[in-house]
Amino acid sequence: MMIFLTADGKYLGKSKEKTRFRMMYKHKEKLEKGEYILFVDVNWDDSCKHDFDYMKIAIDIYSSTCSDIVSLSAEEGMPQVCKAIQDYSKTA
User: Fold this and answer.
1) Alpha carbon distance 12, 92 (integer Å)
2) Please, is 9 exposed, middle or buried when counting C-beta atoms within 10 Å of its C-beta (0-12, 13-18, 19+)?
3) Distances (CA, A) of 88 to 30, 33, 83, 85
4) 3, 84 in Cβ contact below 8 A?
5) Distance separating alpha carbons of residues 41 and 61, to the nearest angstrom
6) 83 φ/ψ angles, rounded to the nearest 5 degrees
7) More exposed terminus of the chain, fewer Cβ within 10 Å: N or C?
8) Buried (b) or exposed (e) across 43-62, using 16+ Cβ within 10 A?
């Protein structure tokens, strides 16, 4: 599953799983320039430990400007994810 958030933790949307190996998220509105968080939660199959290339994640971003992708540690990213889940649960 993927969850898409603003940098301050506002929930924007989640992925639609196409297959076990492919997730997709398409934001319908124009995004303002800024920082966003894409939280990727993967359930790795036990066989992945035999070839770590299967544990690589490919991300495609289509934009008219360049984008930098930075990996956050759990300590950095989880507070925003928790806030987004709490905020979303109030609306669901």
Assistant:
1) 13
2) middle
3) 21, 23, 8, 5
4) yes
5) 18
6) -60, -45
7) C
8) eeeeeeeeeeeeeeeeeeee
Q: Each residue of 43-54: pLDDT tens digit?
A: 667 777 787 777
The overall pTM is greater than 0.85: no
Region of 34 please: left (phi>0), alpha (psi -120 to 50) or beta.
left
Sign, Cα dihedral of 89, 7, 31, 26: negative
User: What backbone phi and psi angles, to 5 degrees, belong to 13?
Assistant: 165, 175
13-42 pLDDT tens trace:
877 766 555 666 667 777 888 888 888 777
